[in-house]
Amino acid sequence: MSDRRHDLAEAATDYVLEHGLLDLSLRPLAAALGTSDRMLLYHFKDKLDLVATVLNVSNARSVRGIRELRPSRDVRQAVVDLWGVVSQPEQARCQRLYVEAAALGVLGAEPFATVVGEANEEWLGALADHLVSSGMRTSDAGRAARLVEAAFMGFQLDEPLEPAMQIRRSIGDLADAVAAVWSE
Asked: How far apart are CA 52 and CA 116, in angstroms?
C-alpha cells in the first residue's frame, strides 16, 4: 500500500468509525479528508474497495489491541481482561463498525460478506492466542474463543440497554464458565 493510500485509509477509517458505514458517501468523506472524491477513486479502485479497506484497517486495530494484551494469570482472568480491552471506547467503535458490516454481509452483500468472514478468523485467532498464553490448552482455545466472542457480541449489543453492573456480573459468569470447562 502506498504511503498516500495508507494515510487515506487510516483517515477514512477514523471518519467511518465516527460517522458510520450505512450512509457513507464519497464527497463528504473526501471533504473531511481534505481531498476530492476523484482522488479517493484514484487511490482506491471504487467505493467498495475503499469500504473493504476501511473494514480491514478497523479490524487490524481491534486485533492489535488484543495482541498487545499481556498474558493473564489464568483462563478466568483472561476472559475478564479480554472484555477490558474489547469494551474500551476505541475498540467499541470498531466493534460497532463490524456489526454494521456483518449485518450487510449476512445478506450476502460484498465486500461485506468476504471481509467480515476474514475478520472473524483473524479476531478469533487473536482471542484464542490470548487464552492459550493464559493457560488454556491449544486444542480447546478455538471453541472457547468462539463462545467468548459470541457472548461479548451479545454484551456489546446489550450495553446501551443494561445497567453496567449487570454486564460486569455477566462477564464474571462467562469467565467462571469458561474457566470451569477449559482450565487445565
From this structure: 9
Residue 111, preceding bond cis, omega within 30 degrees? yes
DSSP 4-53: HHHHHHHHHHHHHHHH-STT--HHHHHHHHTS-HHHHHHHSSSHHHHHHH
Domain of 27 in residue numbering reads as 3-182
| CATH number, domain with residue 167 | 1.10.357.10
For residue 176, what pLDDT band results from cuts at 50, 70 and 90?
very high
Residue 1: C-alpha distances to residues 7, 10, 20, 25 (Å):
10, 12, 24, 23
For residue 91, pLDDT beyond 70: yes
Reading the block at residue 60, the C-alpha cell is 487490524
What is the overall mean pLDDT for the chain? 92
Q: Are 52 and 30 in contact (CB under 8 A)?
A: no
The DSSP element (H or E) to which 164 belongs, if any, is: helix 164-182
Q: Is the pLDDT of residue 1 over 70?
A: no
| CA 34/CA 20 separation, integer angstroms | 19
What pTM did the predictor assign? 0.89
Domain count for the chain: 1
